[in-house]
TrEMBL record:
Function: Allows the formation of correctly charged Gln-tRNA(Gln) through the transamidation of misacylated Glu-tRNA(Gln) in organisms which lack glutaminyl-tRNA synthetase. The reaction takes place in the presence of glutamine and ATP through an activated gamma-phospho-Glu-tRNA(Gln).
UniProt catalytic activity: L-glutamyl-tRNA(Gln) + L-glutamine + ATP + H2O = L-glutaminyl-tRNA(Gln) + L-glutamate + ADP + phosphate + H(+)
Enzyme kind, highest EC tier: ligase
Assembly, per entry: Heterotrimer of A, B and C subunits.
Protein name: Glutamyl-tRNA(Gln) amidotransferase subunit A
Active site positions: 52 (charge relay system), 133 (charge relay system), 157 (acyl-ester intermediate)
Keyword terms of this UniProt record: ATP-binding, Ligase, Nucleotide-binding, Protein biosynthesis
Family from the record: Belongs to the amidase family. GatA subfamily.
Gene3D superfamilies cross-referenced by the UniProt entry: Amidase signature (AS) domain
Domain named Amidase: residues: 5-447
PANTHER family: GLUTAMYL-TRNA(GLN) AMIDOTRANSFERASE SUBUNIT A (PTHR11895:SF151), TRANSAMIDASE (PTHR11895)
Cross-referenced InterPro entries: Amidase, Amidase_CS, Amidase_dom, AS_sf, GatA
Database matches in NCBIfam families: gatA (TIGR00132)
Length: 454
């Protein structure tokens, strides 16, 4: 009982959950007992899962960590969460995140910061960011509050929080997991994926979450491979590319050393290592921060005070006043910043200069990867340019925050599968992650390389 109480205290202190749903988890545990007795266990029977509060869950409030959707109780279940329940899992609760998944530290949530369970070992006892936007997911898993959770990744939101908290997470190829029922941020980039402590757990979860869905027009109509059964850390015959543009002058020395260590591990597993070039890498961050806000400004137009959640209707107000009052109160500062950038780059005089140009550069970035993959089967890079930073440290400087995504956004723009696995600890005892990027649809090689590293 005392251990349980300690867990409850930790859960509250970390602020990882927005809503707790223990009854759902307990019902799944009971169902698992019955299934075991009947010899009918499912792949995830009884496994309690944390659900990022971006997935619509029938009958359970879904907020996207915004005031705008406070009190919104969907009448439908997202395809991905529905697949998890059908496989026997139960929901522990809805996990905190950056508001509408916009952020890299979980500090843009309307429901407050999430705290990482990690602390520096060099005396600095300040609370650390769990990464973002899936910061509730990463913190809860790292603190052993749940064995697994869902994440979504638009520009790094599965991989960077996994790296900051010493866990693993994979963003599959764009289209592998249905986006139906997931609150949309940037539709051409958003992908769901699992986060868990081990690569094997990720493979098992992804197998359940992936699959064709006629309700998502970008869902891939392909069979889901048996990733877990085919896991192997034997990389003989595989070639690993090391993209030189990911080693800028001034790369943190500990990150560079970890990367070299990762290269050595993959060589030990039998892989051959080659240098490759992704020449347009330096344009990835600005390209992402045009395309993602552009799509967000369009997706978030639906929150008008009429259809969902919040409505602010000042006395005697007309329709326009209601829109303005609702949106002023319902969205946080980062969401407003993205909507303003997005509407600007999509506006008549600037569309070609920004949005069209960004789409062209996106195609060049995708082509870089295609050319690199003529010489190799996977790429190894660091996941983030630093270990977890202190809460508040980058909050006043959006550009410093955006720079944290420098290594994760290129694979998002190209729609490629990418995973972060824990690589080791820095001098302050904080986890560092290694990123594996694969060819489109080749999650197996990504997972196998992850297994070789973990
Ligand atoms: N940090 C990135 C952003 O703020 C990525 C977020 C995400 O992947 N959802 O847009």
């Amino acid at each position: 009982a005392s251990a349980f109480n300690a867990n409850v205290a930790t859960a509250k202190a970390l602020n990882a959950f927005i809503v707790e749903t223990p009854d759902s988890a307990l019902a799944a545990a009971d169902a698992a007992d019955a299934a075991r007795a009947a010899g009918d266990l499912k792949p995830l029977s009884g496994v309690p899962i944390g659900m990022k509060d971006l997935f619509c869950t029938q009958g359970v409030q879904t907020t996207a960590a915004s005031h705008m959707l406070e009190g919104f109780v969907p009448t439908y279940e997202s395809t991905v969460s529905g697949k998890l329940w059908a496989a026997g899992a139960g929901m522990l609760g809805k996990l905190n995140l950056d508001q509408f998944a916009m952020g890299s530290s979980n500090e843009t949530s309307y429901y407050g910061n999430v705290i990482s369970p990690w602390r520096r070992n060099d005396g600095g006892n300040a609370a650390l960011a769990p990464g973002g936007s899936s910061g509730g997911s990463s913190s809860a898993i790292a603190a052993r509050l749940c064995p697994a959770a869902t994440g979504t990744d638009t520009g790094g939101s599965i991989r960077q929080p996994a790296a900051f908290t010493g866990i693993s997470g994979i963003k599959p190829t764009y289209g592998r997991c249905s986006r139906w029922g997931i609150v949309a941020f940037a539709s051409s980039l958003d992908q769901a994926g699992p986060m868990a402590r081990t690569v094997r757990d990720n493979a098992l979860l992804l197998e359940v979450m992936a699959g064709f869905d006629p309700k998502d027009s970008t869902s891939l109509d392909l069979a889901v491979p048996q990733w877990e059964a085919n896991l192997s850390s034997d990389l003989r015959g595989k070639t690993v590319g090391i993209p030189r543009e990911y080693r800028p002058d001034g790369l943190n020395a500990e990150i560079a050393a970890l990367w070299d260590q990762g290269i050595a591990w993959l060589k030990d597993a039998g892989a051959t290592v080659v240098d490759v070039s992704l020449p347009h890498t330096k344009y990835a961050l600005p390209t992402y921060y045009i395309i993602a806000p552009a799509e967000a400004s369009s997706n978030l137009a639906r929150y008008d005070g009429v259809r969902y959640g919040q409505r602010d209707l000042p006395d005697g107000a007309g329709l326009q006043d209601m829109y303005a009052a609702t949106r002023a109160a319902g969205f946080g500062p980062e969401v407003k910043r993205r909507i303003m950038i997005g509407t600007y780059v999509l506006s008549a005089g600037f569309y070609d200069a920004y949005y069209t140009q960004a789409q062209k550069v996106r195609a060049l970035i995708a082509r870089d990867f295609e050319q690199a993959f003529e010489q190799c089967d996977l790429l190894l890079t660091p996941t983030a340019p630093s270990a977890a930073f202190t809460l508040g440290e980058k909050q006043a400087d959006p550009l410093a925050m955006y720079l944290n995504d420098v290594f994760t956004v290129p694979a998002s723009l190209a729609g490629l599968p990418a995973m972060s696995v824990p690589g080791g600890l820095d001098a302050a005892g904080l986890p560092l992650g290694l990123q594996i990027i694969g060819k489109a649809l080749d999650e197996q090689t990504v997972l196998n390389a992850g297994l070789a590293i973990e």
